[in-house]
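Continuing the series of single-chain predictions for the mutant panel. This is the parent chain; the variants come on the following pages.
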Amino acid sequence: QVQLRESGGGLVQAGDSLRLSCTASGRTFSLSVVGWFRVGPGKDREFVAAVSRSGETTKYSDSVKGRFTISRDNAEKTVNLQMNSLKPEDTAVYYCAATSGFQLPTSPAYYTSWGQGTQVTVSS
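Parent structure:
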């Protein structure tokens, strides 16, 4: 199992960019699918993006497609989430999560390791 830690959150204005990083420890990181989820005020946990073990395959929610980019560096054991054209509705606590297997699940129930989260606030 991997241990995950998010960083890079903060307060930005609408239209700005922000990059979140998820740093992992543990020997199985390269064997893990990694996803980003978020929990907005008064909302349920929402899938944002996921990346395959190799980094070649990605998946995005419709709400962030075209604005967010997920990438990974297995040598550095990091997964980044580049967020551009941020909107106030992107305000949330963002979590990275990992799971074994080959699929890119969008349900948080399939992920077994979670970070503590990082706050992103987008002002209008």
